[in-house]
Specification:
The structure is a single chain. The chain is α+β, with helices and mostly antiparallel strands. It has helices at residues 2-23, 109-128, 134-154, 158-163; strands at 25-38, 43-48, 58-64, 77-86, 89-100. β1 (25-38) and β2 (43-48) form a beta hairpin.
C-alpha cells in the first residue's frame, strides 16, 4: 500500500513538474528580412513585423539552435522562421529562405560629399548673410579715407600746399 501511494504521489508530482516546464516554453512563427548573419556564433538579426506576445515591429537578434540552420542564409534574404522562448532563452529551431529582398539604393560617395558641402555652404551663407561682403567694406573705408584726406588738402592754406 505504501508503495502504491508513493508511486501515485511521484507520478502526480512528475506530471505537474512537466506541465509547469511546458508553460515556460513558448513557440512562435514569423517571417522577415535578414539584416545580419554570423554562422560562426550562430547569430542572426532579422527585421520582422509584430510577433504577438513576443515583440513589436523591428529587428531582433536571435541565436540558432544549430549552426547548420544558418549555412545558406545571407543578408537581405527573406525568411520564414520558427523559434522557441524558454524563460528568455530564445533559439531559432527552423528557418526557411523564401526569397531575396531587393537591395536598398545606396547613395554614391560623390553625391554624399556634394550634398554635405552644399549643406555646409548653406549654413555658412546663413551665418554670414547679415555681414557686408569684404569688397564693399574695404571700398567704403577707402572712400572715407580719400574723402578725409581730400578735405584736409582742400582746406589747407596755399602756402602749406606748396610746402607739401
Amino acid at each position: 500500500m505504501k508503495k502504491t501511494v508513493f508511486f501515485i504521489f511521484t507520478f502526480l508530482f512528475s506530471a505537474l513538474t512537466l506541465q509547469a516546464a511546458d508553460s515556460n516554453l513558448r513557440h512562435f512563427k514569423s517571417n522577415g528580412q535578414v539584416v545580419t548573419v554570423d554562422p560562426v556564433y550562430s547569430q542572426i538579426t532579422i527585421f520582422h513585423g509584430a510577433i504577438k506576445d513576443f515583440a513589436g515591429d523591428g529587428a531582433t537578434e536571435f541565436y540558432a539552435s544549430d549552426p547548420e540552420l544558418l549555412k545558406n542564409i545571407q543578408k537581405n534574404d527573406l525568411v520564414d522562421f520558427e523559434f522557441t522562448d524558454t524563460k528568455g532563452d530564445v533559439k531559432i529551431d527552423k528557418i526557411t529562405k523564401t526569397g531575396v529582398a531587393s537591395p536598398e539604393k545606396e547613395t554614391p560617395f560623390g553625391t554624399a560629399v556634394q550634398e554635405t558641402l552644399e549643406g555646409a555652404g548653406n549654413i555658412v551663407k546663413g551665418v554670414t548673410e547679415p555681414i557686408a561682403p569684404v569688397h564693399e567694406v574695404t571700398s567704403g573705408v577707402a572712400d572715407a579715407t580719400t574723402n578725409a584726406t581730400g578735405s584736409v588738402l582742400r582746406d589747407v592754406p596755399s602756402e602749406q600746399k606748396s610746402k607739401f
